[in-house]
Amino acid sequence: MSEAVILSAILGFFGLLITIVYNNFNSRLAKDRIQKELFTEFNERYDKLNDSLYKIQLECHNIEDLENNTDLKPKLMDFFNLCSEEFYWFYHKKRIDPIIWHSWQKGMNYWYNNVPVIKKMWENEMKLSGKLSYYITDKMEFFKDEICK
């Protein structure tokens, strides 16, 4: 075998290696970019809902209070949708880092576990819409701690 063939094979190998490293780096960079965009969008949406969740906690003592409040009920539905989207991007698409998901889920569970009307409304929503409309199954639920593990 000639030196030119050997040199050509070595250069080809290093070219392939550089291509693989470059593609791997770009793939990780793209995943980080998507994760940052999702993180920013979801946090901005949550910030817009936060005051409404506190109002629900203070003003809505039962389902009727919430059902009759034309400002707060849609905000709670937005919160449920936000939770489901975060869950979808974490659990189904694997685009959210588990550390971020754990933090978000802790916040979700705070509202679910500490505001009875939110918990009751979620139970009603599950009866009406079902789990599929929120990307969850019988074994997975974002208002439970099992997913965190």
Structure notes:
This protein is mainly α and 149 residues long. It has one domain (32-148). Helices cover 76% and strands 0% of the residues. The protein is built from five helices and no strands. The protein has helices at residues 3-59, 63-67, 72-92, 98-114, 116-128. Helix 3 packs antiparallel against helix 4 (98-114) and helix 4 packs across helix 5 (116-128). The longest helix has 57 residues, at 3-59. The radius of gyration is 23 Å and the shape is elongated. The N and C termini lie far apart (57 Å). 15% of the residues are buried. The model has no long low-confidence stretch (mean pLDDT 89).
Features:
elongated; mainly alpha; 149 residues; single chain
Q: Summed up, what is this model?
A:
By secondary structure, the chain is an all-alpha fold. The chain has helices at 3-59, 63-67, 72-92, 98-114, 116-128.
- What's the average pLDDT? 89
Structural class category: mainly alpha
What is the total domain count?
1
Q: How many DSSP-defined strands?
A: 0
N-to-C span: 57 Å
Low-confidence spans = none
Number of helices: 5
| Secondary-structure element order, N to C | HHHHH
The global form is elongated
Computed CA radius of gyration, to the nearest angstrom: 23 Å
Major β-sheet, in short? none
Beta content comes to: under 5%
Give the helix level as a range of percent: over 70%
Task: Describe the secondary structure blueprint for this structure.
Blueprint lengths: L2 H57 L3 H5 L4 H21 L5 H17 L1 H13 L21
Helix pairs in contact: 1-3, 3-4, 4-5
